[in-house]
Amino acid sequence: MTDEMNPFAAMMKQAQDMAKAMNPAMENFSPKGFEALWPTMPKEVMEMMFGNTVNKDGLDAKTRLLLTLAGLTCQGAQADAAVRQTVRHALEAGAKKQEIVETIGQMSVFAGIPAMTRALDLAQEVMGDNEDEDQ
């Protein structure tokens, strides 16, 4: 099947062409720019946006971020920047390295070993920078 016949490829090309037409700078867009823009939100901001402010008796930011990490792992850990950012945010929200590893490991049942391994590699990139943190 050629790209011209592939509906997904055609849709992606159309979206890229539209983005370039609206903003020519989008031609050089990279998701890594988002990661560099705000690498880690302060814990207080996360709690305000994703934690108990939303639902006083609900999940805290750490739990929400671990759930997000699980979802990203189940997607096959395709979004490198999103996985790394979520790990950084989870650490900032109080998650231990062991909790992050367990969250990703648990997803091997649902996402498969390759997706789990990819997510663990990405998480290790972030957690390797925090050697002084608790295990």
Summarize this entry quickly.
With 135 residues, the protein is mainly α. The protein has helices spanning 7-22, 32-37, 43-50, 61-74, 80-92, 97-106, 108-111, 113-127.
How would you characterize this protein structure?
The chain has 135 residues and is mostly helical. The chain has helices spanning 7-22, 32-37, 43-50, 61-74, 80-92, 97-106, 108-111, 113-127. The longest helix is centred in the N-terminal third of the chain and has 16 residues, at 7-22.
Order of helices and strands: HHHHHHHH
Q: Please summarize the sheet with the most strands.
A: none
Number of strands: 0
Helical fraction: 55-70%
How confident is the prediction overall: mean pLDDT?
79
Summarize this structure as a short list of keywords or feature phrases.
single chain; mainly alpha; 8 helices; globular
Fold blueprint:
Layout: H1 7-22, H2 32-37, H3 43-50, H4 61-74, H5 80-92, H6 97-106, H7 108-111, H8 113-127
